[in-house]
Design a protein that fits this description.
Number of strands: 10
Keywords: ATP-binding, Nucleotide-binding, Transport
CATH architecture: 3-Layer(aba) Sandwich
GO molecular function: ATP binding
CATH topology: Rossmann fold
Shape: globular
Protein name: ABC transporter ATP-binding protein
Radius of gyration: 17 Å
CATH class: Alpha Beta
Number of domains: 1
Strand content: 25-35%
Largest sheet: 6 strands, mixed
Bound molecules: adenosine-5'-triphosphate, magnesium ion
Order of helices and strands: EEEHEEHEHHHEHEHEE
Structural class: alpha/beta
CATH superfamily: P-loop containing nucleotide triphosphate hydrolases
Length: 226
């Protein structure tokens, strides 16, 4: 599905150049569930942002379903994000002024679809993560776990090909973190491809493969024993 070839990302300031990523080789097949681990500052979020086309590589190639998109025009990337990617962040990133249902519907923004179809899809996504009863509430009225489940509903409502999650359980207690991991595991079992950054070895174990990073490089990639 995706392939990074010799991808690098450097940040240049007045005097120092920071290499956030260097020589990254990574392929993810459809249906995989990959966990990315490594110490703070090793480049995990940078890598995930490049996969999500929120950031661009400084060098190398990024093949998405066969097409090199490392230097694709922004409009093309925006369309790819809209139609094929779903994002989940550590801090939920819900909009407080909107209800939960409206937040979830943002995952369908600009999709050519009748409002009735959108409503049905939003309802199904909220149902799937167990927050249907909170649809008229606002994010600040929900617990952290409920907010993250709403964010997952927003990420999956457009049936993305690839789900990218940056420390999705980072702000949650054990119980709510486990619930979020159950949902991700189920989504993967149903065919979603997932790449997830995590600091939790237990949560990485739920993924089918763990990629370890250090200092902007990939150290190892190991599949979970069956
Ligand atoms: N906008 C930026 N300008 C300069 N350097 C940056 C910028 N963004 C990230 N970096 C640097 O790139 C490196 C990788 O950062 P990144 O956020 O990818 O780390 P991370 O592995 O996600 O860490 P954490 O576990 O703390 O989230 C760090 O050294 C960071 O300081
Ligand atoms: Mg990070």
């Amino acid at each position: 599905m995706i392939q990074l070839q010799d991808v690098s990302r450097t940040y240049a300031s007045d005097e120092i150049e920071t290499t956030a990523l260097g020589g990254i080789e990574l392929a993810v097949e459809a249906g995989e569930f990959v966990a990315i681990m490594g110490p703070s500052g090793c480049g995990k979020s940078t890598l995930l942002n490049i996969l999500g086309t929120i950031d661009r590589p400084s060098g190398g190639r990024y093949l998405f379903e066969g097409t090199d998109i490392a230097r694709a025009p922004e409009g093309e990337l925006a369309k790819l994000r809209r139609d094929r990617l779903g994002f989940i962040f550590q801090s939920f990133n819900l909009i407080d002024e909107l209800t939960i249902a409206e937040n979830v519907a943002l995952g369908l923004a600009y999709r050519p679809m009748s409002s009735r179809d959108k409503k049905e899809r939003v309802a199904a996504a909220m149902d799937r993560v167990g927050i249907a009863h909170r649809q008229r509430h606002h994010p600040y009225q929900l617990s952290g776990g409920q907010q993250q489940r709403a964010a997952i509903a927003r990420a999956i409502v457009g049936t993305p090909r690839l789900i990218l999650a940056d420390e999705p359980t980072g702000n949650l207690d054990t119980e709510n973190g486990a619930q979020v991991m159950d949902i991700l595991e189920q989504l993967n079992a149903d065919g979603s491809t997932i790449v997830m950054v995590t600091h939790s070895p237990a949560h990485a174990d739920i993924a089918k493969r763990t990629v370890h990073m250090l200092d902007g490089r990939i150290l190892s990639s190991a599949r979970r024993a069956a």
